[in-house]
Amino acid sequence: MVWGTIIAAYLFLAGLSAGAFLTSSFVSRKYPNAVTMRVTGRLISPVLMGIGLLLLIVDAEAGLKNPLRFIYLFTNFNSVMTIGTYFISIFMMAAAYIALMELLKKKANKIVEYVGIVFAVATAMYTGFLIGVIATVPLWNTAILPILFVVSALSTGIAGTILVSSFFNKHEVHQVLSVKKIHLSLLATEAFLIFTMFLITSTSNEAAAESVSSLLSGEFSLLFWIGLIAVGLLLPIIVESLELLNSRKMEHSEAGIQVSAAGTHDIAGTLVTESSVLVGGFILRFLLLSAAVPIAFL
Protein backbone atom coordinates (compact mmCIF):
# COMPACT_ATOMS: atom_id res chain seq x y z
CA MET A 1 0.00 0.00 0.00
CA VAL A 2 1.39 3.39 -1.02
CA TRP A 3 -0.63 5.23 1.60
CA GLY A 4 -2.17 3.76 4.74
CA THR A 5 -5.58 3.33 6.28
CA ILE A 6 -5.32 6.70 8.04
CA ILE A 7 -5.07 8.48 4.69
CA ALA A 8 -8.07 6.49 3.42
CA ALA A 9 -10.01 7.67 6.50
CA TYR A 10 -8.90 11.26 5.88
CA LEU A 11 -10.07 11.16 2.26
CA PHE A 12 -13.35 9.61 3.37
CA LEU A 13 -14.03 12.15 6.12
CA ALA A 14 -13.10 15.11 3.93
CA GLY A 15 -15.54 14.00 1.26
CA LEU A 16 -18.21 13.17 3.83
CA SER A 17 -17.81 16.59 5.43
CA ALA A 18 -18.17 18.38 2.08
CA GLY A 19 -21.16 16.24 1.15
CA ALA A 20 -22.92 16.91 4.46
CA PHE A 21 -22.47 20.66 4.02
CA LEU A 22 -23.88 20.54 0.48
CA THR A 23 -26.78 18.35 1.66
CA SER A 24 -27.71 20.82 4.37
CA SER A 25 -27.55 23.73 1.92
CA PHE A 26 -29.85 21.91 -0.52
CA VAL A 27 -32.30 20.93 2.22
CA SER A 28 -32.42 24.48 3.59
CA ARG A 29 -33.66 25.69 0.20
CA LYS A 30 -35.79 22.80 -0.98
CA TYR A 31 -37.30 21.90 2.41
CA PRO A 32 -37.08 25.00 4.63
CA ASN A 33 -39.02 23.27 7.39
CA ALA A 34 -36.75 20.22 7.52
CA VAL A 35 -34.86 21.87 10.35
CA THR A 36 -33.33 18.70 11.80
CA MET A 37 -31.57 17.72 8.58
CA ARG A 38 -30.40 21.25 7.90
CA VAL A 39 -28.92 21.69 11.38
CA THR A 40 -27.45 18.18 11.41
CA GLY A 41 -25.61 18.61 8.12
CA ARG A 42 -24.22 21.96 9.16
CA LEU A 43 -23.04 20.76 12.56
CA ILE A 44 -21.40 17.48 11.54
CA SER A 45 -19.60 19.01 8.56
CA PRO A 46 -16.83 20.93 10.40
CA VAL A 47 -16.60 18.21 13.06
CA LEU A 48 -15.91 15.51 10.47
CA MET A 49 -13.44 17.74 8.64
CA GLY A 50 -11.67 18.44 11.91
CA ILE A 51 -11.37 14.74 12.71
CA GLY A 52 -10.01 14.10 9.23
CA LEU A 53 -7.37 16.79 9.60
CA LEU A 54 -6.42 15.43 13.01
CA LEU A 55 -5.88 12.00 11.47
CA LEU A 56 -3.68 13.59 8.82
CA ILE A 57 -1.58 15.32 11.49
CA VAL A 58 -1.06 12.23 13.63
CA ASP A 59 -0.09 10.13 10.63
CA ALA A 60 3.73 10.11 10.57
CA GLU A 61 3.86 10.29 6.79
CA ALA A 62 1.76 13.45 6.90
CA GLY A 63 4.40 15.34 8.81
CA LEU A 64 4.29 14.56 12.53
CA LYS A 65 8.01 13.80 12.43
CA ASN A 66 8.68 16.97 10.47
CA PRO A 67 6.25 19.80 11.42
CA LEU A 68 7.90 22.15 8.92
CA ARG A 69 6.14 20.21 6.17
CA PHE A 70 2.88 21.88 7.20
CA ILE A 71 4.41 25.31 6.62
CA TYR A 72 5.65 24.11 3.24
CA LEU A 73 2.09 23.04 2.38
CA PHE A 74 1.00 26.69 2.38
CA THR A 75 3.95 27.98 0.34
CA ASN A 76 4.54 25.45 -2.46
CA PHE A 77 2.05 26.72 -5.04
CA ASN A 78 3.25 24.24 -7.66
CA SER A 79 1.82 21.42 -5.54
CA VAL A 80 -1.72 20.10 -5.70
CA MET A 81 -1.50 19.58 -1.94
CA THR A 82 -0.92 23.30 -1.40
CA ILE A 83 -3.94 24.21 -3.50
CA GLY A 84 -5.96 21.59 -1.65
CA THR A 85 -4.81 22.93 1.69
CA TYR A 86 -6.25 26.33 0.82
CA PHE A 87 -9.47 24.73 -0.42
CA ILE A 88 -9.89 22.82 2.85
CA SER A 89 -8.90 25.80 5.01
CA ILE A 90 -11.45 28.12 3.41
CA PHE A 91 -14.13 25.45 3.47
CA MET A 92 -13.41 24.65 7.13
CA MET A 93 -13.72 28.30 8.14
CA ALA A 94 -16.98 28.73 6.24
CA ALA A 95 -18.44 25.48 7.61
CA ALA A 96 -17.41 26.37 11.17
CA TYR A 97 -19.03 29.81 10.85
CA ILE A 98 -22.30 28.34 9.52
CA ALA A 99 -22.32 25.75 12.31
CA LEU A 100 -21.74 28.47 14.92
CA MET A 101 -24.65 30.50 13.57
CA GLU A 102 -26.88 27.43 13.88
CA LEU A 103 -25.81 26.92 17.49
CA LEU A 104 -26.46 30.59 18.25
CA LYS A 105 -29.75 30.40 16.31
CA LYS A 106 -28.72 33.34 14.19
CA LYS A 107 -29.08 33.88 10.47
CA ALA A 108 -25.86 33.11 8.59
CA ASN A 109 -24.33 35.47 6.06
CA LYS A 110 -25.40 34.25 2.61
CA ILE A 111 -22.07 35.14 1.01
CA VAL A 112 -20.21 32.95 3.49
CA GLU A 113 -22.62 30.10 2.79
CA TYR A 114 -22.07 30.43 -0.97
CA VAL A 115 -18.32 30.43 -0.40
CA GLY A 116 -18.77 27.28 1.67
CA ILE A 117 -20.72 25.62 -1.13
CA VAL A 118 -18.05 26.42 -3.72
CA PHE A 119 -15.20 25.20 -1.56
CA ALA A 120 -17.14 22.15 -0.41
CA VAL A 121 -17.25 21.06 -4.06
CA ALA A 122 -13.57 21.98 -4.43
CA THR A 123 -12.70 19.93 -1.35
CA ALA A 124 -14.57 16.90 -2.65
CA MET A 125 -12.77 17.15 -5.99
CA TYR A 126 -9.41 17.71 -4.30
CA THR A 127 -9.62 14.35 -2.52
CA GLY A 128 -9.55 12.79 -5.97
CA PHE A 129 -6.91 15.08 -7.45
CA LEU A 130 -4.65 14.49 -4.43
CA ILE A 131 -3.87 10.96 -5.57
CA GLY A 132 -4.89 11.40 -9.20
CA VAL A 133 -1.87 13.53 -10.07
CA ILE A 134 0.54 10.67 -9.28
CA ALA A 135 1.36 9.56 -12.81
CA THR A 136 3.28 6.46 -11.72
CA VAL A 137 0.09 4.90 -10.35
CA PRO A 138 -2.24 4.35 -13.34
CA LEU A 139 -5.21 3.28 -11.17
CA TRP A 140 -5.24 6.81 -9.72
CA ASN A 141 -4.05 8.79 -12.73
CA THR A 142 -7.39 9.04 -14.51
CA ALA A 143 -9.81 11.91 -15.09
CA ILE A 144 -12.66 9.78 -13.78
CA LEU A 145 -11.28 9.59 -10.24
CA PRO A 146 -12.08 13.19 -9.14
CA ILE A 147 -15.59 12.80 -10.55
CA LEU A 148 -16.01 9.50 -8.71
CA PHE A 149 -14.87 11.08 -5.46
CA VAL A 150 -17.29 14.00 -5.85
CA VAL A 151 -20.19 11.61 -6.48
CA SER A 152 -19.14 9.47 -3.51
CA ALA A 153 -18.76 12.57 -1.31
CA LEU A 154 -22.28 13.71 -2.13
CA SER A 155 -23.65 10.22 -1.56
CA THR A 156 -21.92 9.72 1.80
CA GLY A 157 -22.81 13.29 2.79
CA ILE A 158 -26.50 12.58 2.26
CA ALA A 159 -26.17 9.24 4.07
CA GLY A 160 -24.37 10.76 7.04
CA THR A 161 -26.85 13.61 7.37
CA ILE A 162 -29.88 11.31 7.11
CA LEU A 163 -28.36 8.76 9.50
CA VAL A 164 -27.67 11.27 12.29
CA SER A 165 -30.95 13.11 11.69
CA SER A 166 -32.96 9.89 11.99
CA PHE A 167 -32.06 9.64 15.67
CA PHE A 168 -33.67 13.02 16.33
CA ASN A 169 -36.55 13.06 13.85
CA LYS A 170 -37.31 9.72 12.22
CA HIS A 171 -40.26 11.10 10.28
CA GLU A 172 -38.48 14.03 8.68
CA VAL A 173 -35.84 11.88 6.97
CA HIS A 174 -38.60 10.05 5.07
CA GLN A 175 -40.23 13.27 3.94
CA VAL A 176 -37.43 14.74 1.85
CA LEU A 177 -38.19 12.70 -1.26
CA SER A 178 -36.07 14.80 -3.61
CA VAL A 179 -33.00 14.07 -1.48
CA LYS A 180 -33.73 10.34 -1.64
CA LYS A 181 -34.15 10.45 -5.41
CA ILE A 182 -30.84 12.29 -5.76
CA HIS A 183 -29.21 9.79 -3.43
CA LEU A 184 -30.41 6.86 -5.53
CA SER A 185 -29.09 8.52 -8.70
CA LEU A 186 -25.72 9.13 -7.06
CA LEU A 187 -25.38 5.50 -5.98
CA ALA A 188 -26.16 4.26 -9.48
CA THR A 189 -23.75 6.78 -10.98
CA GLU A 190 -21.02 5.72 -8.55
CA ALA A 191 -21.35 2.07 -9.61
CA PHE A 192 -21.20 3.09 -13.28
CA LEU A 193 -18.10 5.26 -12.75
CA ILE A 194 -16.27 2.52 -10.85
CA PHE A 195 -16.60 -0.05 -13.61
CA THR A 196 -16.01 2.53 -16.34
CA MET A 197 -12.77 3.58 -14.63
CA PHE A 198 -11.69 -0.04 -14.32
CA LEU A 199 -12.49 -0.75 -17.96
CA ILE A 200 -10.49 2.23 -19.20
CA THR A 201 -7.50 1.96 -16.88
CA SER A 202 -7.09 -1.82 -17.11
CA THR A 203 -6.13 -1.58 -20.77
CA SER A 204 -3.58 1.22 -20.35
CA ASN A 205 -0.61 -0.80 -19.07
CA GLU A 206 0.42 -3.84 -17.05
CA ALA A 207 0.41 -2.04 -13.70
CA ALA A 208 -3.16 -0.86 -14.23
CA ALA A 209 -4.27 -4.33 -15.29
CA GLU A 210 -2.71 -5.81 -12.16
CA SER A 211 -4.45 -3.26 -9.94
CA VAL A 212 -7.87 -3.92 -11.46
CA SER A 213 -7.31 -7.66 -11.39
CA SER A 214 -6.51 -7.59 -7.66
CA LEU A 215 -9.85 -5.87 -7.07
CA LEU A 216 -12.04 -7.96 -9.34
CA SER A 217 -10.59 -11.42 -8.85
CA GLY A 218 -7.49 -11.21 -6.68
CA GLU A 219 -6.41 -10.25 -3.19
CA PHE A 220 -9.07 -7.60 -2.60
CA SER A 221 -11.92 -9.20 -4.56
CA LEU A 222 -13.89 -10.35 -1.51
CA LEU A 223 -13.87 -6.88 0.04
CA PHE A 224 -14.64 -5.32 -3.33
CA TRP A 225 -17.60 -7.49 -4.31
CA ILE A 226 -19.14 -7.98 -0.86
CA GLY A 227 -18.06 -4.84 1.01
CA LEU A 228 -18.24 -2.21 -1.74
CA ILE A 229 -20.57 -3.55 -4.41
CA ALA A 230 -23.05 -5.68 -2.43
CA VAL A 231 -23.18 -3.80 0.88
CA GLY A 232 -22.07 -0.31 -0.12
CA LEU A 233 -23.98 0.04 -3.39
CA LEU A 234 -26.49 -2.69 -4.27
CA LEU A 235 -28.14 -2.93 -0.84
CA PRO A 236 -28.87 0.81 -0.51
CA ILE A 237 -29.88 1.00 -4.19
CA ILE A 238 -32.44 -1.77 -3.70
CA VAL A 239 -33.79 -0.40 -0.42
CA GLU A 240 -34.01 3.18 -1.70
CA SER A 241 -35.70 2.00 -4.90
CA LEU A 242 -38.29 -0.04 -3.02
CA GLU A 243 -39.00 2.86 -0.67
CA LEU A 244 -39.59 5.24 -3.57
CA LEU A 245 -41.66 2.71 -5.52
CA ASN A 246 -43.86 1.97 -2.50
CA SER A 247 -44.35 5.59 -1.57
CA ARG A 248 -47.81 6.96 -1.91
CA LYS A 249 -48.48 9.98 -4.05
CA MET A 250 -46.58 12.88 -2.56
CA GLU A 251 -48.55 15.40 -0.60
CA HIS A 252 -47.65 18.82 0.73
CA SER A 253 -48.11 19.42 4.39
CA GLU A 254 -48.89 22.88 5.79
CA ALA A 255 -45.22 23.20 6.59
CA GLY A 256 -44.31 22.68 2.96
CA ILE A 257 -42.47 19.37 3.37
CA GLN A 258 -43.28 16.57 0.93
CA VAL A 259 -44.83 13.61 2.75
CA SER A 260 -44.82 9.98 1.63
CA ALA A 261 -46.07 6.73 3.11
CA ALA A 262 -42.50 6.07 4.14
CA GLY A 263 -42.87 8.83 6.68
CA THR A 264 -44.68 6.44 8.98
CA HIS A 265 -41.95 3.80 8.89
CA ASP A 266 -39.48 3.17 11.67
CA ILE A 267 -35.82 3.98 11.23
CA ALA A 268 -34.50 0.41 10.96
CA GLY A 269 -34.31 0.53 7.17
CA THR A 270 -32.74 3.98 7.29
CA LEU A 271 -30.05 2.88 9.73
CA VAL A 272 -29.11 -0.13 7.60
CA THR A 273 -29.19 1.72 4.27
CA GLU A 274 -27.28 4.83 5.25
CA SER A 275 -24.74 2.90 7.33
CA SER A 276 -24.11 0.69 4.30
CA VAL A 277 -23.43 3.74 2.15
CA LEU A 278 -20.92 5.07 4.66
CA VAL A 279 -19.18 1.69 4.90
CA GLY A 280 -19.01 1.54 1.11
CA GLY A 281 -17.60 5.05 0.91
CA PHE A 282 -14.70 4.17 3.19
CA ILE A 283 -14.07 0.82 1.50
CA LEU A 284 -13.90 2.55 -1.89
CA ARG A 285 -11.05 4.78 -0.78
CA PHE A 286 -9.31 2.01 1.14
CA LEU A 287 -9.38 -0.29 -1.89
CA LEU A 288 -8.15 2.36 -4.31
CA LEU A 289 -5.15 3.00 -2.05
CA SER A 290 -4.53 -0.66 -1.26
CA ALA A 291 -4.75 -2.09 -4.77
CA ALA A 292 -2.65 0.61 -6.46
CA VAL A 293 0.39 -0.81 -8.26
CA PRO A 294 3.07 1.77 -9.16
CA ILE A 295 4.67 1.36 -12.56
CA ALA A 296 8.17 1.75 -11.16
CA PHE A 297 7.73 -1.22 -8.82
CA LEU A 298 6.96 -3.78 -11.50
Question: What features would you describe in this structure?
Answer:
- The protein is an all-alpha fold and 298 residues long.
- The chain has one domain: Formate dehydrogenase/DMSO reductase domain (Formate dehydrogenase/DMSO reductase fold), CATH 1.20.1630.10.
- It has helices at 5-30, 35-58, 68-73, 80-103, 110-132, 144-166, 177-201, 206-216, 221-245, 268-290; strands spanning 251-252, 258-259.
- It has a two-stranded antiparallel sheet.
- β1 (251-252) and β2 form a beta hairpin.
- The longest helix is centred in the first third of the chain and has 26 residues, at 5-30.
- The model is unreliable at 249-256 and 258-264 (pLDDT under 50).
CATH superfamily: Formate dehydrogenase/DMSO reductase domain
Structural class based on helices, strands and sheet pairing: mainly alpha
CATH class descriptor = Mainly Alpha
N/C terminus separation: 14 Å
Number of contiguous helices: 10
Number of strands: 2
Beta-strand content bin:
under 5%
Element-by-element helix/strand order: HHHHHHHHHEEH
Low-confidence stretches: 249-256, 258-264
The Cα radius of gyration reads 20 Å
Relative helix content:
over 70%
How many structural units, i.e. domains?
Answer: 1
CATH topology value: Formate dehydrogenase/DMSO reductase fold
Question: Main sheet, how many strands, which sense, barrel?
Answer: 2 strands, antiparallel
The largest beta-sheet arranges its strands as 1-2
